[in-house]
Design a protein that fits this description.
single chain, about 80 residues, mainly alpha, 2 helices, transmembrane helix, membrane, transmembrane
Length: about 80
């Protein structure tokens, strides 16, 4: 049995980077949503940038999860 160590290392590195990247992206979305909520609580107009950043971060997280499910679930043709 032969193990391709470079391919295994490449898969491990890409998995680590995407896992950490997805967690950071979600944390940025939560931070932006929190700033928006604080502005609303203080009776200020919420920033469009915070709202847009939160929506964009959460949409990117959802897209990544859906793409992962697409890769995992077998495709029958």
């Amino acid at each position: 049995m032969h193990i391709n160590w470079s391919a295994l290392g490449e898969v491990a590195l890409v998995s680590l980077l995407f896992g950490v990247g997805l967690a950071v992206l979600f944390a940025l979305g939560v931070t932006a949503m929190s700033r928006r909520a604080v502005a609303i609580d203080e009776k200020r107009q919420p920033s469009f940038v915070d709202t847009g950043a939160a929506a964009l971060c959460f949409a990117a997280c959802l897209a990544a999860v859906l793409y992962g499910l697409y890769l995992i679930i077998p495709q029958f043709h």
